[in-house]
Amino acid sequence: MEKQENGSEAPAPEPELKLYGSWASSYTHRVQLALRLKGLEFEYAEEDLGNKSEALLRHNPVHKKVPVLLHRGRPLAESVIILQYLDDAFPDTRPLLPSDPFLRALSRFWCHFADDKLGPAVGAVFASTGKEQEEAVRQVHENLAMLEAELREGEFKGRRFFGGDRVGLLDVVLGCGSYWLAVFEEVTGVRLVDADAFPLFHAWLRDFEAQEEVKETIPSVDRLLEYARGLRQMLLALAAGAGDGGSTGVPVSSAVDAPVAAAPPAPAPAAAAVDI
Amino acid sequence: MADEVILLDFWVSPFGQRCRIALLEKGISYEYSEQSLAQKSDLLLRSNPIHKKIPVLLHAGRPICESLIILEYIDETWSDKSPLLPFDNPYARSCARFWADYVDKKLFDSQTRLWKLKAGEADHEQAKRDMVETLQTLEKELGEKDYFGGDVFGFLDVVIVPFVAWFYAYERFGGFSVEEVCPRLVAWAKRCRERESVSKTISDPEKVYEFALYLKDKFGAK
């Protein structure tokens, strides 16, 4: 720090990039991973989702969620939008999106699929039991089959990653979330990703998780398991509390906010869906 | 033709209309193909096997699905004229994408609940409140600007404008005045209608209301 003329030290400058996130949020992991892949330094602020900071609420008043990225003080929200911003704002860094418009459209399509279909389906498996869970598992398998077909026969055929030889936008988006599959399998005892049924998806996920930057970003399996076990208990208790012993009657397709590892929030049933 | 453009669409769909407006703004010739949603064509099912929905843009035989993705594809492929997203301002591009995402998460859902649910029931009252909140949020985002993008008609204007044809239906189903709730948004809608691409594309509000009544009759809460 520079000394000013009167002898006091100048305050440290605001970091160019500051990320508000939550350690168990795969949406947060997407941004952390993207920043690491691009070699961009950033300051990280952990949010207690049961007690959101004034800063977070000010920077994302519309959705009040993490992640939020500040770039030179200006806030950006929604992980897939943040990732595309990084490509636009830092054109000299490794690009996440391909340059061809058709492949860009395809990447965006499958990112939306991950958040709109696959994610909620996996969340539903995790939040349910019995018949409802069976239906949710069927949904997950249907969605994985679509991805498998795309890897086998579609534009991404023959590629190691969706981004080609190296990890790109779609890898980051799908990958940060897919690590929950093994965790949820362990906690619920339900088989989600069968290596025989989905060999290409399985191989892709294994290669993704072996990347250095990915290993630096995803929390340890033990922490994820502990979190998932606590969350599962909470969700089942809510389901039981709803009275009919089976369904909560609320859609589990919206994102959860509260890592159970934090001070226990009292989530309204409507908030109880899984951020994965 | 190798680079022929076909749009699989449905006449009243605001999502399809976004694509039509963008194609007109860019001066792209294309074939419009009206689809039956009750009996989906082989072409539609082949082009969008995952969601089986319109709109789908076929360019040189390759399908692009989802209206916001189609808009960006059109902007990137025909980048020499009438940019939809500002090409030199990453932050403005992100804001446009953020609000487009907001519209797709909130507006269509609120409007569906408005026609689908029974008037007078608690959930219908909630749908009304949600719709008013959404409109007021968009009004606030527009602020004093002529267009959502600033001085120039752009991406976010294209994204939202087809829904102005539904304002009359919101009023009939919701029992509130859109002009009272969001006067600047209504002024913006009038301004957009002066553009040929918009006036040629968006539906007649009476026809939209009739269509919503048909949906209510078929799928609404009894």
UniProtKB/TrEMBL annotation, chain A:
<dbReference type="GO" id="GO:0004364">
    <property type="term" value="F:glutathione transferase activity"/>
</dbReference>
<dbReference type="InterPro" id="IPR045074">
    <property type="entry name" value="GST_C_Tau"/>
</dbReference>
<dbReference type="InterPro" id="IPR036282">
    <property type="entry name" value="Glutathione-S-Trfase_C_sf"/>
</dbReference>
<feature type="domain" description="GST N-terminal">
    <location>
        <begin position="15"/>
        <end position="94"/>
    </location>
</feature>
<dbReference type="InterPro" id="IPR045073">
    <property type="entry name" value="Omega/Tau-like"/>
</dbReference>
<dbReference type="GO" id="GO:0009407">
    <property type="term" value="P:toxin catabolic process"/>
</dbReference>
<dbReference type="InterPro" id="IPR004046">
    <property type="entry name" value="GST_C"/>
</dbReference>
<dbReference type="InterPro" id="IPR036249">
    <property type="entry name" value="Thioredoxin-like_sf"/>
</dbReference>
<feature type="domain" description="GST C-terminal">
    <location>
        <begin position="100"/>
        <end position="231"/>
    </location>
</feature>
<dbReference type="InterPro" id="IPR010987">
    <property type="entry name" value="Glutathione-S-Trfase_C-like"/>
</dbReference>
<dbReference type="GO" id="GO:0006749">
    <property type="term" value="P:glutathione metabolic process"/>
</dbReference>
<dbReference type="Pfam" id="PF00043">
    <property type="entry name" value="GST_C"/>
</dbReference>
<comment type="similarity">
    <text>Belongs to the GST superfamily.</text>
</comment>
<keyword id="KW-0808">Transferase</keyword>
<protein>
    <recommendedName>
        <fullName>glutathione transferase</fullName>
        <ecNumber>2.5.1.18</ecNumber>
    </recommendedName>
</protein>
<dbReference type="InterPro" id="IPR040079">
    <property type="entry name" value="Glutathione_S-Trfase"/>
</dbReference>
<dbReference type="InterPro" id="IPR004045">
    <property type="entry name" value="Glutathione_S-Trfase_N"/>
</dbReference>
<dbReference type="GO" id="GO:0005737">
    <property type="term" value="C:cytoplasm"/>
</dbReference>
<dbReference type="Pfam" id="PF02798">
    <property type="entry name" value="GST_N"/>
</dbReference>
From TrEMBL, chain B:
<dbReference type="InterPro" id="IPR040079">
    <property type="entry name" value="Glutathione_S-Trfase"/>
</dbReference>
<keyword id="KW-0808">Transferase</keyword>
<dbReference type="InterPro" id="IPR036282">
    <property type="entry name" value="Glutathione-S-Trfase_C_sf"/>
</dbReference>
<feature type="domain" description="GST C-terminal">
    <location>
        <begin position="89"/>
        <end position="211"/>
    </location>
</feature>
<comment type="similarity">
    <text>Belongs to the GST superfamily.</text>
</comment>
<dbReference type="Pfam" id="PF13410">
    <property type="entry name" value="GST_C_2"/>
</dbReference>
<dbReference type="GO" id="GO:0005829">
    <property type="term" value="C:cytosol"/>
</dbReference>
<dbReference type="Pfam" id="PF02798">
    <property type="entry name" value="GST_N"/>
</dbReference>
<protein>
    <recommendedName>
        <fullName>Glutathione S-transferase</fullName>
        <ecNumber>2.5.1.18</ecNumber>
    </recommendedName>
</protein>
<dbReference type="GO" id="GO:0004364">
    <property type="term" value="F:glutathione transferase activity"/>
</dbReference>
<dbReference type="InterPro" id="IPR004045">
    <property type="entry name" value="Glutathione_S-Trfase_N"/>
</dbReference>
<dbReference type="InterPro" id="IPR036249">
    <property type="entry name" value="Thioredoxin-like_sf"/>
</dbReference>
<dbReference type="InterPro" id="IPR045073">
    <property type="entry name" value="Omega/Tau-like"/>
</dbReference>
<dbReference type="InterPro" id="IPR010987">
    <property type="entry name" value="Glutathione-S-Trfase_C-like"/>
</dbReference>
<feature type="domain" description="GST N-terminal">
    <location>
        <begin position="3"/>
        <end position="82"/>
    </location>
</feature>
<dbReference type="InterPro" id="IPR045074">
    <property type="entry name" value="GST_C_Tau"/>
</dbReference>
<keyword id="KW-0963">Cytoplasm</keyword>
<dbReference type="GO" id="GO:0006749">
    <property type="term" value="P:glutathione metabolic process"/>
</dbReference>
<comment type="function">
    <text>Is involved in the conjugation of reduced glutathione to a wide number of exogenous and endogenous hydrophobic electrophiles.</text>
</comment>
